[in-house]
Give the backbone structure.
Amino acid sequence: MAQWRSARQGADDTIRFSRTFLLLLLAISAILIAADRTEDRVEAITVFRAAFNDVSLPVLEAAAQPLRGLYNVGPWWRRQMELANEIRELRQEMAELRAWRDVALNYSEQMRRQQELLNLDPPMPRNRITAWSVTETGGPFVRTRLVGVGSDNGVEPGYPALNIYGVVGRTIDVGARSSRILLLTDLNSRVSVMADRSNARAMLVGDNTDFPRLDYLGRAPDIREGDRIVTSGDDNVLPRGLPIGEAVMDRRGLWRVALYSSAAPIDLIWIWPFEPIAPPAEEVPVPAVLPGLPPADPLPPDAAEAAEPDAVSSAEPETDQTGEGR
Amino acid sequence: MRAPLERNSTWPVLTAIGLTLVLSLLAVAAPLRLPEGQGFPAPLFPLIALFVWSVRYPRFIPPWVIFLVGIFQDLLTGGPLGMWAISYLLAFAIARLRTTEPSAREFILLVARSSLMTGIATLVAWVAGSLSIGQPADPTSLVTEGVITLIVFPAFCWLFARKRERTTFS
């Protein structure tokens, strides 16, 4: 320590910028920026970032506590009055909604029966994973959010994330106890959607604004102001029918979507497990068996076992899609 | 002329520097979950902390510390890795070329230099970020951050200039 100090004692008033070292650090930064481009990110960086998120999440959460407290001090009595009003309104709303709940239950029962008749799988899986979103990275380059669940809780990359109003985005980097969610507004977000009313297809393209764009609409798109936009499931990235937002036209005449999920700050998030349909291409082909003849080239028993469930599972969703497309 | 703290021990200074840098990073990255939603702009605290310490104790803020602070800011805020590192490094490298150290301790010069540094850091961050996403990024929030930093910076410079005077003449 003493040696280190004495070596630099003379240079007390200057930052010792060794030019070579500085250039080296600049080069490293440039390489990192190039390697971290979102469209072709180096695998190691993704893994490293996920691990770093795992470690930093508790620290960030702890650091935010006192700051959050400061913001919440405010005039609390005004908040109390607002709350009392809110409770009164909510009670009234609840009474009205009770009737709607009966209607919904009725419809849901009808729907279930019809799905059974049509041999359709319900589009939504049952086990959702609930998480608090913890960081708000509203920078100009990325629109992502961090949640405190990861592969330990069953999250995998590509799962859709929703709040109570609609789709928020989907998971990208997944660590053991944390995941990063790519928001629909991010520049790299592409989701195929449709208008609920007309089934007109489009691609929802994030452009880092709060209102993502509707692209690839075709020549005369059947879309109107206020149309409900939902996922179409065509892209095999998100399941069909998740609520996204309402179609709005901007000043330049481009169709955009006012997201349902931005109706309130994104806080509690549900992550829905979703398995995209796997293509049958890489499967071991099952040899054609003529009736009455033994197979020409029998598969080893384990390969046959491995091939069979895949064939079944890939066949089922295919019917599901064609059935729903009508 | 030497401050008493420097003569006695290095560790308190190092601890103070480390603590300030960590706190500044947390202040930038902490999830505040504000009721108004996202997009709450904060000044570039890490740049301010680095600048203030680099004027007071230049030998404790070598380039690799600047680099590490930048990298941690990128990791914590989820931005393109290396963006803030390259911004801070270039800001320090360029702003340093244009000043002579002893006179840089006067208030006006400190403000001028810190403003130059903020400008460079914001510009480089915008260019690096735009290169990273492959198209010009929306500069609004970066510019807001830069402007807030510019507003806050003189206060820190003033505090520092005052402190310096006291330690020199007492």
Notes: Chain B is about 70% helix and 0% strand. Chain B has one domain: 4-31+42-169. Residues 70 and 85 of chain B are 4 Å apart (CA to CA). Residues 140-169 of chain B form the longest helix (30 residues).
